[in-house]
Every structure is written in structure tokens, then in C-alpha cells.
């Protein structure tokens, strides 16, 4: 065999092995537990948090943060960073109320409390409140201001979504809603979690 071709074949095999070794152990569609410092998504509120990521390449990765509390079977909050899939020309955002049907905390039923509202703080969001399993909760869909030109929450390249529930027996008032929504954001991996700002407004 030609020595040149043999060298090229060996190089190709070596590159394939290197790529395989550098790939994450999880398949691209599986959630993989990660260190908080490696996450692009954060939730600055209280709670015991787990950080997860799916996808091999950064510009297609989704992230999530789950928050647990002793005595609760399901996460008290779950927030997600979603990115537009490759080749998706129009990417519509879900309605906040649709998120209740995606999480087991609400499987036993829930009661919507009022109409969908708009939040304009660090996070731009649409949200709706509900009661489930004796907890007062909200579900939201939104984006950071830099990701939503003109403040429009439609056809975004990436968005934030999830739900948050108050502590058992606590009320989720306007101040609690503002604090929860402005505790959600995006950061660079390795950066510390920013403190939630004051002075945000909901409406």
C-alpha cells in the first residue's frame, strides 16, 4: 500500500478516536448533571439546586435548574434555558399555562389564579399563577432584554421558561413573583450568580 495513503488513513483513525474521547458521555438528547459553575443558566433564589445540561455543542445546548425542598416529592421550582433547534425557521414560544401540563407536580390537578400577566424587570416574561398540591405557584416564559428586541417575546433564538412554587403555607404575592422572576437569568460558564436586582415591576 502507498505509504502516503497509509499515513492519511492512520491520521483519520486517530482523529475519529480523539473526537470520540472528547465527546460527553451522555447522548445529545439526554440530561447530564453538571457542576453549577459550568451552567449558563442560574436561579438566584433559595433552595437546594441541581444543574443539568443536554446537547454536545454550546450553541445548541439546553440547561435546567431544579430546586428541591425536604418533604416535597417533586421539585419546588424548575427553570430552563431553551435554544432554537438547527434549521427551525419559526420557533413559537409556549404559553405559560401550557407548562403546568409538563411537570409531575401538577399531575394531580391545578387551579389557575387570574389572567396571564406581563413582567418587565431584568427578565421580560409572561406568567400566570396557579395553585397545586396546596402550593401557590407561577409558570413563566420569557427572555433577557438583550434576547428580545423591542421587548417582543416571540420567535426568539433562546428563551427561559419554567415554574416556581412558594414554600408550603406561604402566599406568592406580587413581591414574591417579582423576586422569583428576576432571580432567573443567563451567565457565562464560570461566572458567579448575580444578585437579583431591586425595583422590578410586574403587571
Features:
9-stranded antiparallel β-sheet; two-stranded antiparallel sheet; 11 strands; disordered C terminus
In short:
With 203 residues, the protein is an alpha+beta fold. The protein has helices at 3-22, 174-181; strands spanning 32-33, 41-43, 48-54, 62-68, 77-83, 111-120, 123-132, 135-144, 158-165, 184-186, 201-202.
Tell me what portion of residues adopts beta-strand conformation: 25-35%
Shape: globular
Poorly predicted regions are: 9-27, 199-203
Radius of gyration: 20 Å
**Which structural class do the helices and strands define?**
alpha+beta
Helix content: 10-25%
Number of domains in the coordinates?
A: 1
Major sheet strand order? 1-3-4-5-9-8-7-6-11
Distance between the termini: 74 Å
Counting DSSP H or I runs of 4 or more residues, the number of helices is 2
Average per-residue pLDDT, rounded, comes to 82
How would a textbook summarize the main sheet? 9 strands, antiparallel
Overall strand count: 11
N-to-C series of helices and strands:
HEEEEEEEEEHEE
In words, what does this structure look like?
The protein has 203 residues and is α+β, with helices and mostly antiparallel strands. It has a 9-stranded antiparallel beta sheet. It has helices at residues 3-22, 174-181, and strands spanning 32-33, 41-43, 48-54, 62-68, 77-83, 111-120, 123-132, 135-144, 158-165, 184-186, 201-202. It has 2 helices and 11 strands, in the order H-E-E-E-E-E-E-E-E-E-H-E-E. A hairpin with a 7-residue loop joins strand 3 and strand 4. The radius of gyration is 20 Å and the shape is globular. The chain has one domain (27-202).
Amino acid at each position: 500500500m502507498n505509504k502516503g495513503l497509509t499515513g492519511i488513513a492512520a491520521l483519520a483513525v486517530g482523529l475519529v478516536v480523539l473526537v470520540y474521547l472528547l465527546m460527553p458521555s451522555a447522548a445529545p438528547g439526554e440530561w447530564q448533571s453538571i457542576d453549577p459553575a459550568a451552567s449558563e443558566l442560574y436561579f438566584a433564589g433559595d433552595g437546594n439546586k441541581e444543574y443539568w445540561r443536554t446537547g454536545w455543542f454550546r450553541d445548541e445546548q439546553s440547561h435546567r435548574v431544579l430546586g428541591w425542598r425536604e418533604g416535597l416529592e417533586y421539585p419546588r421550582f424548575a427553570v430552563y434555558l431553551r435554544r432554537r433547534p438547527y434549521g427551525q425557521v419559526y420557533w413559537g414560544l409556549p404559553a405559560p399555562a401550557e407548562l403546568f401540563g409538563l411537570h409531575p407536580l401538577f399531575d394531580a390537578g391545578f387551579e389557575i389564579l387570574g389572567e396571564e400577566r406581563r413582567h418587565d424587570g431584568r427578565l421580560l416574561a409572561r406568567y400566570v399563577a396557579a395553585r397545586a398540591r396546596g402550593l401557590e405557584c407561577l409558570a413563566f416564559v420569557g427572555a433577557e432584554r438583550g434576547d428580545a428586541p423591542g421587548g417582543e417575546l416571540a420567535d426568539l433564538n433562546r428563551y427561559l421558561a419554567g415554574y416556581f412554587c412558594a414554600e408550603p403555607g406561604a402566599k406568592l404575592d406580587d413581591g414574591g413573583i417579582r423576586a422569583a422572576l428576576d432571580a432567573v437569568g443567563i451567565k457565562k460558564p464560570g461566572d458567579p450568580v448575580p444578585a437579583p436586582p431591586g425595583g422590578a415591576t410586574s403587571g
